[in-house]
Model the fold of this input.
Amino acid sequence: MTYRRFTITIIAMTVLLVLLGVACLLFGSVDIPADKIADIVTGKGSGNKAWDIIILQSRIPMIITAALAGAALSISGLLLQTTFNNPLAGPSILGVSSGAGLGVAIVILAMGGSLGGLLGEGAGSYMAILVGALLGAGMVLVTLIAFSAIVRSNTMLLIIGILVSYLTSSVVQLLNSVATEEGVHNYVAWGFGNFSGVSAAQMPIYAGVIILALIGSALMVKPLNALLLGTRYARNLGINVSRTRNSLLLITGILTAVVTAYCGPIGFIGLVVPHIARMSLGTSNHARLVPATILAGADIALLCALVSVNNPHGIIPINAITPIIGVPIILYIILNRRRIQYFN
Amino acid sequence: MNNDNAILTTHDLSVGYRNGSQQVTLLSGLNLVLEKGKLVALLGQNGAGKSTLLRALTCDEHPLDGTIEISGRNMHDMSQKDRSRLIGLVSTERIQAGALTVTELVGLGRQPHTGFLGRLDDEDRKIVHQSMVDAGIIGKANEYMASLSDGERQKAMIARALAQQTPIIILDEPTAFLDVASRIETMRLLQTLAHERGKAVLLSSHDISQSLMLADELWLITTDRQVLTGTPKKLIADGAMDHLFTNRSIHFNHDILDYSF
Done:
């Protein structure tokens, strides 16, 4: 019974992923006939250079970027929710995304340029940007671990995460005050969230790191399930809790850092998607939750991307769309928490 | 101390906690023996150190001094994995597993025996099934944990410990949140596991009269921080029961096997 529900859910999410991917290919700010797009994708070329470039260097990279970003943020959220035993945890609400953002800002500034380098090719500098994001995210995660040992309350930990976000954004703004005007402009643009920032040349690193970390998360299914019972039971089941926790937070840090560095601090996806996966599967068993979270995350991000680029008056920032999807779901969960199985 | 049935022994064990730089010893010089096939109840008033002692025995807390041996091996020299095959735990910790079915939850008990990804094979599934039968929760095998009553949930947690197939089961106040009927049922179940399966079962409890009636042995933490051990009969005869509570207006009533005031 549960396996049938799992199979149906996975098939539905995969079909949706394909449909959304095709839609993102077909619809954008420039109208390109569908048969021409098919020609470009199959390598024949449309005979229109501009169209070739739009499809191959803009739409396809955006589709891959969005799908992977959605999957990465959603898995981050899932791992954080299980690790901290907190259903409202997520990379943005706990300040992990803003920590990564701070790391990025510091690197850009230290490299002598303005924050503008963020969106450009940066002459190989994006490795440094990535490392900066990773260190920033890691710093916040270590802070959270330290606080979670002191404050036992879930709500307090969320508030600490929000405080960390405020602190990092104030540091970033202080950095901005010494940056160039162009840098500030680009930083603000980056903060809107955007899936078009990964060029075809940057794609191998972006995709490679995310896919490896996603595989890593899939290998953590056994300890993740043990952690559902709390740390004492997990230890009793033979799990090395501190090592597991460190591995989980490392994976979370990598996923959030990479996405944040390239796409900006994207809110809500990481918080909401694990709940969508749990509700559609009716389980908190990570063996089924991890694949469903990856697919649902990719779906949601592609939907956001599709809405974002199909506005006649210009691109809508991703962070203007995610709350519209995310807030109603979170409110539903909060209001129905007594009825939803996994809260009990 | 040659005892063929002894499975867990402590040697000059001291337990307590650290408060900043201060070390607070709750119990010291403990030489306890837990035997196969026996149901042992750990009794003592709140704060006496019941949970602290159990946390030391399950290796959740390092003892302040002394050693704990299982079948002659020092427990602290073992890996987490080795220990997980020796001691099964049922605690009162809040769990997040409401959306797991009973079968899935009990299946987690197989983790010490499964591979890297935790997949269950046919043999594991058989053991999970039998554990649910033994714990009397098989009727709810496909229900969500969230839909169970407190008593049923406790049975599922006991089934999970059974699936772990450990010779020792340690339970931290397993009957604390249960109504009278479920308390008796749970205690009877634990007694059966000890007597018929040969498991060494150690539980902490507040329920004096039930422990006196159903346990084979008591570990009694007295008000002067001694741990007295023996059969309920012996401890009652020795007058040990009079040293369980500090409050002088509460005294042990030998006729009803419980406390009066």
Notes: DSSP finds 14 helices and no strands in chain A. The longest helix of chain A spans residues 49-83. The two ends of chain A are 22 Å apart (CA to CA). The interface with chain B takes residues 1-2, 82, 85, 219, 221-222, 225-226, 228-230, 232-233, 235-240, 278, 282-285, 287, 341-344 of chain A (CB under 8 Å).
